[in-house]
Amino acid sequence: MSKWFYPIFVTVILAVSLPVFAKNSAVNAVNIDIGSDGRRVDGHAITKARRISGDALASGVVDVFVVHAPKKGGPIFIEGGLSACAEAGFSSTPKTFNAFINKLRAIHPKAGTFVTVKATANCIKVTTPPVMCGGIAGKACPIGQVCVDDPSDSCDPKKGGADCSGFCKIK
């Protein structure tokens, strides 16, 4: 056998199996988080991220754009911010989706605001914790929601618990 047989054989096997390995680590989504260190969030950074994402949706680079926060009935950050995920579109290519990610990464906010862009295989559904209400502070629920007792605690308003906290539930 030729001295080149084994090196050529191994090279061919690796070349054939390389696309299989590449598919397992495909980037099909991106998580976008914009927040702050306690100061007010740079509104221009949020606007730019929304505009870049909107352009990607309009051009088919992105098919799904899910906003985790802020959203109606969900948690609202005191200092503002954005938490979202975008998935590559059906007609998107790795080149166009990576260009979208790079545009997001090119956002340079004012001091105190951070922009985190993480490429991932897919968007995961994020469950937001329920909004707390009632209690000693008597915190009200957002419009369209009602405060219900938290069954996981030992406080029961039907059995003398006057300051029981609960969570907001859609009517």
What does this protein structure show overall?
This protein has 2 domains: 98 residues, 2-Layer Sandwich (Alpha-Beta Plaits); 39 residues, no CATH class. The strands form 2 sheets. Strands 2-3-1-4 form a 4-stranded antiparallel sheet, covered by helices on one side. Strands 5-7-6 form a 3-stranded antiparallel sheet, with no helix packed on it. It has 3 helices and 7 strands. The protein is elongated, with a radius of gyration of 24 Å. With 171 residues, the chain is of the alpha+beta class.
* Largest sheet properties: 4 strands, antiparallel
Instruction: Sum up the overall morphology in one term.
Output: elongated
| Overall residue-averaged pLDDT value | 81
Please state how the strands of the largest beta sheet are arranged side by side: 2-3-1-4
Rounded to the nearest angstrom, the distance between the terminal CA atoms is: 78 Å
The parts where pLDDT drops under 50 for at least 5 residues are 18-24
Number of domains: 2
Instruction: Please report the first level of CATH classification, the CATH class of the largest domain.
Output: Alpha Beta
**What fold name stands as the CATH topology of the largest domain?**
Alpha-Beta Plaits
Per CATH, the architecture of the largest domain is 2-Layer Sandwich
How does the helix and strand content classify structurally?
Answer: alpha+beta
Rounded Rg = 24 Å
Relevant CATH superfamily of the largest domain:
ACT-like. Chain A, domain 2
Helicity range of the residues? 25-40%
Give the topology string: H per helix, E per strand. Answer: HEHEEHEEEE
Strand percentage, roughly? 25-35%
